[in-house]
Specification:
412 residues; Immunoglobulin-like; alpha+beta
Length: 412
Amino acid sequence: MSGTESADEGSPSVTVEEAGVRVEKTLALELFDTPAVVFTVVSDREDDAYVSVTDPLPEGIDPNDVGLHPEYDSEGWRRRDGDLQFERRLTPGEQVETVYGLRGVSVDRPSALLAEPTVDEVVAADEGTDTTADEGDTDRDTNDGIGLDLDRDASDADAPDDGDRTGADDETNDDRATTLDLESAASAGGATGSESETAHGASVAAGTGLDDAEGVAAALVAEFERGHVDEETHRALEEHLQPSLPQSVEARLDTIQARLSDLDAYTDALERVLDRTGDDDDVIDRVDSLHARLSDVEDETSVLREDVDGVDARLEPLADLDDDLATLQENLETVREDLATVRAELSEGTAEEVERLRSDLDDLQAWRETLMSTLAGDMDTETDTDTETEAESDANAETETDTDTNTGTGTE
């Protein structure tokens, strides 16, 4: 047997080859939720062959910590002390991929899972059909505590060799059951009471015509009939005489039990959901109600969409109004600027004009006062003059009167 190792980053692997069968073991750290080991078994032979591969487990890893993937030929595996064994019938050129992973345990160095597997034997199918297959399955059946944990449906038949191995198991178990068939032995050994008495005395007559096995079986039946077998011995005999199930059947029973557990959990969850939401009729009524409400919403949405389209159509002319408003806004800003300028100019001009008017008013007031003073002085002077004039006039008048008087007198 030859072996090679590969240490490519992300996919370390090791390969062994024996008698035209190549086994590649690859460590898959990211393919599944737990560390997993992938086996690729390829037959380069020209005939059908049975292959048996043993894979050692790292120290500290119990075989029961290994889980098998139901979609990768899980029924070909069995657990043993410290290792796992994979058996498969391969056709010429066939390639099989199988996987196992670790459940609930961790490995300090995942590379420890890459120990080199061993190809125990490769036997041609024609040579091993009657011997090797039966012997291997007998070991499989007598290996207690295998208990594969599969998540596979009992009706799954992906592995083509399951029927061959199961048939061999059934034949082996049938042989065991018929070898120690108590009923047939009872019919053969229960015909005479003397033989039963002899058996009870722990001796078997040589002339009974039975061979040793039949005599022992007849003696056992007689003891059971007489009730001379204690319960402990009865249980021990029952354990030995009860035929064991083929490993494939045990695996499928484990699968059924696991699925029943899942179904119980699902049923409980479904019951809780139904308690909250009601039965199927209630759900159907709610769904119908939701459909009706959805139809109403769709109708309202259609009407709303039409209204929105109408509003859009009426809003289109307002686009030009927006442009006009923008222009008006610009003009208004210009007017505001001009008004501010005028206000500034008016403010400055008005102040100056007020000051000028106030100055003129002051000058006018001063001129008025001066004028009043002047007029007052002139009026006083004129009054004096008038008085003097009047006095002079009066004097002149008197003088004239006197003159006239004097003149008249003289004339006369």
